[in-house]
Amino acid sequence: MHRCLQVPEVLLAVLSAVQYGWKVNSATYASMARTCQFFYEPAMNALWSDIGCLSWLFRSLPQNTWKEESPNVVVRLAY
What is the CA radius of gyration of the chain? Predict the structure, then answer.
């Protein structure tokens, strides 16, 4: 990776350009996070900044802590 991309301000500018210049979805940020170590943290922050619904947050927990009622219904915590 070029050294200029290791500057945090430049990296954030790249992520901003991606966010406002292209049709962005979560796969775009996930791909950027897997690109290299320096992209990981800012791309993950951008990925999780707009979750859309809480079910994705619950799905990131271990599977034995939540239960899915249907594909379109927010999951409920299992006790």
Answer: 16
